[in-house]
């Protein structure tokens, strides 16, 4: 059995650098208030002082969200209809939806698009958010109908409170932020094999354009863009959709990733990810796709079978700075990668996660992440439920029964157009 170290590295330094455990307040706020000084509390983050993690506890609305996936457990995906009367995202059922925040059309991105192939992607506020804008911090320019402007003083106080929450020993925070859903295709059932380069280009354009707007809020410290597909992918809705979340904190996983990259930069004077790309180019055996702008590999220490790591070849820390031409190239390589996944594994469930640098708001940071971080996309095909059992929970070490070189070979041999 081999242990392989992934490029996100060890968290030992992070643990050592963690602030001392705060002393407990006189009484824990066991029942979060639903109303406080006119501020509506949608949900909360609780700080786990033993692991230094923030855990999200959704508000009442999210706990009541519909589970479209459940009745379709075990259903052959090819039998999922193109349209469902019960789906709020299917054509004709949109009456209950809130106002769209962004709309993109395929024909605007691909002039050769035939009218029958044209489709619309749109972004909405998530009706069942993990985090939501409070009346006290939301900004009218973000187009939330329930938002209200506030004096900047109040906003700054809240941001300061979030930034120093750990140090002050706060165990409970209002889960403020933005949570949006991207309805990325009109078909209720969109097999992997039916996605196109324009589909991926439009999805990532929505991530960029909404991300740019959301991060103008001083509250937002990190941006999370992802897509869950199928029951094993943890999706609650069948209809193809993705999510954009602006968080008022930097999650531990993101801190670990950036800390590891910063330490590597401080020691070697180079970007960890740029060096990792060189290693993969030298060894060749795990490269699934390569063009003049991007590389997609099964990582040397993949967490799960057929995991894909996709990186821009040119160093760039912040996805939000991507231009339209590079978005087009990203759409093309994602299409080829998903064609290979489809041919090798079939119409599998999966998760796709965009990992971009968190926002550089801390004034006293020694190195700006523009030097050492390198944005990337990870795809996790979900052949089975997440393989986390006693060994993984007990050790924190994932156990992958597939060798990455074998998985890469299968994806390479599967081919694409
Ligand atoms: Zn639908
Ligand atoms: Zn780099």
Task: Describe what this molecule looks like in 3D.
The protein has a single domain, classed as HIT-like (HIT family, subunit A, 2-Layer Sandwich), CATH 3.30.428.10. 34% of the residues are buried. A hairpin with a 2-residue loop joins β1 and β2 (39-40). 28% of the residues lie in helices and 18% in strands. The chain has a ten-stranded antiparallel beta sheet, with helices on both faces. The longest helix is centred in the last third of the chain and has 22 residues, at 324-345. α5 (197-214) packs across α8 (324-345) and α8 crosses α11. The radius of gyration is 22 Å and the shape is globular. The chain starts with 11 loop residues before the first helix and ends with a helix. The protein has helices at residues 12-17, 60-63, 106-109, 152-163, 197-214, 252-268, 272-283, 324-345, 369-372, 390-395, 404-414, and strands at residues 35-36, 39-40, 44-48, 53-57, 102-105, 120-125, 172-174, 178-183, 222-229, 241-247, 287-290, 294-297, 308-312, 349-355, 376-382. With 417 residues, the protein is an alpha+beta fold. The structure holds zinc ion (2 copies).
